[in-house]
Amino acid sequence: MDLQQRINAFVKLGEFIEQFTTEGFELNENISASDLFFDGFKHQIKLAHEHNGWFTKENIAFALNGWSKSLSHSNMVQWLEKYNFNNISPKKVAIIMAGNIPLVGFHDFLSVLISGHDVFVKQSSNDKHLLPYLAKYLEHVEPGFKGKIAFTEEKLPDFDAVIATGSNNTSRYFEHYFKEKASIIRNNRNSVAILTGEESDEELKALSEDIFRYYGLGCRNISKLFVPKGYKFDAFFNGVYEWHPIIHQNKYANNYDYNKAVYLMSKFNLLENGFLMLKEDTSYGSPIATLFYEYYNDIDALKQLINENKSSIQCVVSKGVTEDSVAFGQTQHPQLWDYADNVDTIAFLLKI
């Protein structure tokens, strides 16, 4: 396969998953091989939710919608045009995936295959139904991918490079275990929002998407707010109110009740509205149903603090306070070129 064949195959995959981007799931018989794969993937989505209660049909559809848009031909070309794929010698690349949100490891999977390498995938047990089925579709529409994709639940076979994502503890294990291999090792990161008090109602409403989508389980979800000294949270609570039905999701409600009980027994001061708790805390990773917040006096000092802690931060949401700020409501809509941890995966894969 040449690069264009690989691009064309992923574009077809994007067209296929577009059928699953609304909760109704609508078959389009004009999509390649839909008659063979539509019902099967619909079943895999059902299995994914039954296996992992956080993977609701709505959140899976949201993730698929993002990928269907990213895999357009124009997006793929724009992403890849700056790289030189002419001298690729195919290698075996292992990917150890997280399982916190649906298809969280898909970008690594895409990057390895689009670069011309073979991939060994070790999935999280929390997210094991969707990607293998999409891989079968990919092999069907482009037979050149057959023999280049393998999934394993056992020890990884021999490989040349590895991309591994895990917790802070497992990342230290990965760094030791894979020290002889070319690698990208990712650990825990969280995202923050900087508020100035001048945000509009619409911006705060958009921020609620960054907080609650995927129940806050993604590294791009906002887990902490930086607010100016004396900030009043009334406008913030009004902005996020449309997400109040989230408390009817049992797993979320159980976390809310448990964390609230722990905080109250510890006599922490809390702000809460019945479905979200705010706790003043200097940490970045907040529990489910909780947002940490921290006051700041000086915006330049805050920028310096964020820069000093950039290894713990995935995204910064603000109204242009930092140079690389993400707009309100956009953390869960990354482009193909928005690399996790700002590490260029394609550049890495072209050098191994």
Q: Order the strands across the largest sheet as they lie in space.
A: 8-9-10-7-6-11
For the sheet with most strands, the description reads: 6 strands, mixed
Helix content class = 25-40%
Radius of gyration: 21 Å
Q: What is the strand tally?
A: 11
Shape: globular
Q: Structural class, please?
A: alpha/beta
Indicate the CATH architecture of the largest domain.
3-Layer(aba) Sandwich
Order of helices and strands: HHHHEHEHEEHEEHEHHEEEHEH
* Average pLDDT for all residues: 96
Number of domains: 2
Beta-strand content? 15-25%
Q: CATH H-level name of the largest domain... which superfamily?
A: Aldehyde Dehydrogenase, Chain A, domain 1
Structure report:
This protein is of the alpha/beta class and 352 residues long. The chain folds into two domains: 3-188, Aldehyde Dehydrogenase, Chain A, domain 1, CATH 3.40.605.10; 190-317, Aldehyde Dehydrogenase, Chain A, domain 2 (3-Layer(aba) Sandwich), CATH 3.40.309. Helix content is 39%, strand content 15%. The strands form two sheets. It has a six-stranded mixed beta sheet, sandwiched between helices. Helix 6 (130-141) links the parallel strand 2 and strand 3. Helix 1 (3-17) packs antiparallel against helix 3. The longest helix has 18 residues, at 34-51. The protein is globular, with a radius of gyration of 21 Å. It starts with a helix and ends with a helix.
